[in-house]
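Throughout our pipeline, every protein is held as a single compact record rather than as scattered files. The record that follows is passed on verbatim for readers who wish to inspect the format.
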Amino acid sequence: MALLPIRQARELARSEQSWDPFEQMRALLQGDPTGLMRGLAPGGREGWALVPDFDVKETKDAYIFKADLPGVKEENLEVSLTGQQLTISGNRDEEKREEGERYFTFERSHGSFSRSFTLPEGVDSEHVSAEMKDGVLTLAIPKRPEVQPKRIRIGGGGEKKGKA
């Protein structure tokens, strides 16, 4: 048996199988926790399971979450905040295929999803806002005023008394 260079062996392995556990492990180790869902779908069907992509950023006043949810209806979406645990779950229905229709590929995912995020201390859970526009869910979770950064002057020996 001839030995193949590593690159050729990888290409050969990819062409002969659709599921590569090592690729999924690399995705997990590179910080893509949804990488393990690739290649799996409800009912064991090959393809993509419904795993929405999220952007999470921190601003001075809030934490902003954005999720791409094309085709997910608002009534099929649930957002909950329990303590420090934010959970976003939903469902995208499968499109009906009519008898006699001919598909060349059927790749768009459907099904249920659920994502959870642990928020830091100091969020104001009473004033969370959510908006769904053009298939993008945007959540703004404000910080409580007492946990927002305060500027401390250097060399002044503390706060100045009198007029500011």
